[in-house]
Amino acid sequence: MITVDLDKARKELESGGIIALPTETVYGLAGNALDEDAVGKIFSTKKRPHYNPLIVHIKSADYLPQVARDIPDVAYHLARSFWPGPLTLVLKKQPNIPDAVTSGKDTVAVRVPDHPLTLELLEQLDFPLAAPSANPFGSISPTSAAHVEKYFGDTLPVILDGGECRKGIESTIIGFEGERPVVFRMGSLSLEEIMEKVGEISFNTKSVDQQPSAPGMLLRHYAPVTDTYLTEDVRGLVTLHPDKKIGLLLFQEKIKGIKAANQEVLSPTGDLEEAAHNLYAAMHRLDSLDLDMIIAERFPDHGLGKTINDKLERATHRDEAN
Ligand code: TXA
Ligand code: MG
């Protein structure tokens, strides 16, 4: 049920239940991170494979040593720079974090979310919250309470309504090789912003979304049900399919003089932050129109444009099943 009743949310969590809650990135499906049963409910509700670990949400960086150990200085520097905010750090875990949360890894992913309701809730609780995005495994992440209700309406007693997510795309995930930060997942915090603080960083996207134990399994992710294509030449691709009912996902402007059932423009002013904020909501809308195909335009390859292209590439990957 969609509600703004913080007390009800707290009681549900304290009695071992799970709820949906808002963050600045996407909505999360949250439970007590220290309670294996609650964590189990998250995995079963999401139908998430057990090898894919969860992010632990804490109330402030001061709480970090309670969930992580051997924390590199550079991790503290990043935490101080960007928390609360859309940055997740992968660190060595403390023994009290259950294996169910980390999928048996000796590392834990942790962040401080930047949403007043959820920060207030964390303040009232005496445990951290494990929370993946509140969507069934493999589908588009929710950026509003209504999206969560569409997915899990009957099964969740509390969907805490915090409005539309300000950022609209998941957090950026950074791990460490010694003191060296490594990118595990592109997200709402641009790589440029991170590099301003720590210098050049390397990539290790394989370690998060493509588990070595299941090669390629997670390449297709954040995906609409409708067949989706990514191209630099939207007009060209549309004209190749004259008989299809097509929806378009565009950066700045509509394409004139073509036959398309629906055209979603993500930022008329060309603002990549705004485009990121609007991306998933537009995908949800197009996906509900019963189209034959969705064609997305490739975004500029800098700032959050890189993140948007990464998400669109995953949405269009159709060789892999999951
Ligand atoms: O913005 C976000 O991060 C949202 C909100 C709710 O906080 N959460 C989110 O969670 O996107 P989820 O579960 O959809 O994605 C978590 C990602 C997964 O790709 C998982 O593999 C990775 O974090 N992850 C979690 N723990 C990890 C670890 N110990 N090592 C490497 N990757 C990890
Ligand atoms: Mg997710």
In short:
The chain is an alpha/beta fold and 322 residues long.
Characterize the structure shown.
Residues 3-189 form the YrdC-like domain. It comes from Muriicola jejuensis. L-threonine binds at residues 25, 57, 111, 131, 171. InterPro entries: DHBP_synth_RibB-like_a/b_dom, Sua5-like_dom, Sua5/YwlC_C, Sua5_C, T(6)A37_SUA5, TC-AMP_synthase_SUA5. GO terms for molecular function: ATP binding; double-stranded RNA binding; L-threonylcarbamoyladenylate synthase; tRNA binding. With 322 residues, the protein is of the alpha/beta class. The chain has two domains: 2-209, DHBP synthase (Alpha-Beta Complex); 228-316, Rossmann fold (3-Layer(aba) Sandwich). Helix content is 32%, strand content 20%. It has twelve helices and 16 strands. The chain has helices at residues 6-14, 36-46, 64-67, 73-82, 99-102, 116-124, 145-152, 191-198, 206-209, 234-239, 272-287, 304-316; strands spanning 2-3, 19-21, 28-32, 55-57, 68-69, 87-93, 107-111, 129-130, 159-160, 172-177, 180-185, 202-203, 228-231, 246-250, 262-265, 293-297. The strands form three sheets. Strands 2, 3, 4, 5, 6, 7, 8, 10, 11 and 12 form a ten-stranded mixed sheet that branches. A hairpin with a 2-residue loop joins strand 10 and strand 11. Helix 11 (272-287) packs parallel to helix 12 (304-316). The two termini are 29 Å apart. The relative contact order is 0.15. Residues 208-217 have low confidence and may be disordered. The structure holds threonylcarbamoyladenylate (TXA) and magnesium ion. Magnesium ion (MG) is lined by residues 132-133, 141.
